[in-house]
């Protein structure tokens, strides 16, 4: 009966798509990560305890022997990894604190931080997305420490994600933090749900981009592409 319930759920329609289509085609529904209003009622400790219990149940249903020394600690390890590492970006407490500095050098061209390696997870299959992010901005009078650009990328990557949303969340945050529309984000990533399962395409990659303000011209895009490709 359970299987029927699951199938029934995924056949529900949203904007003409079934829930199953949305997952398989990696469509996304909103810019904000969909969160429950009471997402933080539970402490991190409580979350880890609860996830550990639930994950051991998944393992048990799969038929794994949780008394085996190799498997015993897995539910706790997975719970800790979810809460403290790979999904830690769900918690606004972990948002990087960003200090701005005056642009003393009067540098007024684009600054590009390229090849920021990140690991995220597909929100439809909970398997890794591995990629590189390139971010750029033109100072509105303020500058940011370079490592903060990296940290902002990592923060939004550490959520169950969809690449388009990841791109836009990084861009939006940069715009707010840097007080300018002149930001660009390019993400080039591999989705393990495409390579290791499903269509099993090992060579394809997904590229998404955001060009805001002054970046939204063919000239600036070409300049940025040139920096990234060299
Ligand atoms: Zn996926």
Would you give an account of this structure?
It is a single chain. By secondary structure, this protein is of the alpha+beta class. The chain is 41% helix and 22% strand. The protein is built from 9 helices and 9 strands. It has helices spanning 2-10, 19-24, 44-61, 69-72, 74-86, 146-157, 163-178, 192-195, 218-229, and strands at 13-14, 17-18, 100-102, 110-122, 128-138, 142-144, 160-161, 183-191, 206-211. The chain has a 5-stranded mixed sheet with strand order 7-4-5-8-9. A two-stranded antiparallel ribbon has the order 1-2. A two-stranded antiparallel sheet has the order 3-6. Strand 4 and strand 5 form a beta hairpin. The radius of gyration is 20 Å and the shape is globular. It starts with a helix and ends with a helix. The mean pLDDT is 91. Zinc ion binds next to loops.
Short note summarizing the structure:
The protein is of the alpha+beta class and 230 residues long.
Tags for this entry?
230 residues; alpha+beta; 5-stranded mixed beta sheet; two-stranded antiparallel sheet; 9 helices; 9 strands; 22% strand; binds zinc ion
**Distinct ligands, ions and cofactors found in the model:** zinc ion
Number of helices: 9
- CA-based gyration radius: 20 Å
- Please trace the helix and strand order, writing H or E for each element: HEEHHHHEEEEHEHEHEH
Q: Approximately how much beta-strand content do the residues carry? A: 15-25%
Q: Into which percent range does the helicity of residues fall?
A: 40-55%
Question: What is the average of the pLDDT values?
Answer: 91
Q: Helix- and strand-based class?
A: alpha+beta
Low-pLDDT parts are none
Described by the principal axes of the CA atoms, the overall outline is globular
What's the β-strand tally?
9
Q: Can you summarize the main beta sheet?
A: 5 strands, mixed
Q: If strands are numbered along the chain, what order do they take across the biggest sheet? A: 7-4-5-8-9
Give the end-to-end Cα distance, rounded to a whole number of Å. Answer: 56 Å
